[in-house]
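hey so u asked for the seq, here:
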Amino acid sequence: MTTTTIPLDLRAIARQAMIDRGLVPDFPPAVIQQLQQIPGAAHEVEPSICDLRQLVWCSIDNDSSKDLDQLTVAERLPDGGVKVLVAIADVDAVVKQATPIDSHAAINTTSVYTTAEIFPMLPERLSTDLTSLGEANERLAVVVEMIVAADGTVQESTVYRALVKNQAKLTYHEVAAWLDGKTPPPPKVTKITGLAEQLQMQDQISQVMRRLRYQHGALDLDVRQAEVVYSDGHVVGLRDETQNRVQRMIEDFMIAANGASSQFLEAHGCPTLLRIVRSPERWDRIREIAKGFNEQLPDLPNSEALAAFLDRRRQADPARFPDLSLTISN
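ran it, structure tokens below
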């Protein structure tokens, strides 16, 4: 008896899913034409643009990432606090409003990541080159500057444009392995004066900021994501991908930067979109899950109590915590 296996065209499925949801998988001719007319990266010179190229900026991203859209740097303050700066690639310096590239980006609104293919919001020449904050490149960026107190609270913040230079392109895994004490510092970290101290400082203050968020009811969920492994164009397996301390660090800074940006826009009378997280749904079901661990949650939804329960479970059984996270989040 012969069994015929029909291979799945995952790319075709992904593209059709984009179209079914009103998204555009391919760049239209007008976008390609505009892209060909862009001579290079933006080099604006005006008094309002701060020159911050001398700071020890670095990017930390996935191993294969070329579209580097954020950098971080920090400075210890005399009162024990830390000044944290997050630089975001200034795409608007190259792509002006209402142009074909901008109009296409307005449809998809984000890069769409699927198992088979990535559908970028911007053409690759922009996202991985002309607007990317690549190593050794001088680029325009929007900087969110935050004064973070020793207890993790953001005391003040501001937003401005700046010229920055990425001193080192690092990856989540190599920096996390070093901070966890499993490996020596990455070569780029030891080569650049002050970068090791920078990363340790950022790691420390981000943990304080995270603890404060949890105290205010933020949920510490750990939902694992499976990364598809390909060989010769075929799916050969799945690789478990868990979030490490450096990914959490960048996440903490981006959450804080988003909050600072919202406050900046509100102060300047600009409309913003805010995501309001209401009380946890299916609270009775969550309480029953907690009872299975001999835990008692309040009768009424309480995010702080839920966060404390999750923290205890993470410490008690870290190996099974992702399964509990998935159960709670669903």
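The chain has three domains: 20-41+92-130, 52-90+136-273, 276-330. Confidence is low (pLDDT under 50) at residues 1-6.
lmk if thats what u needed
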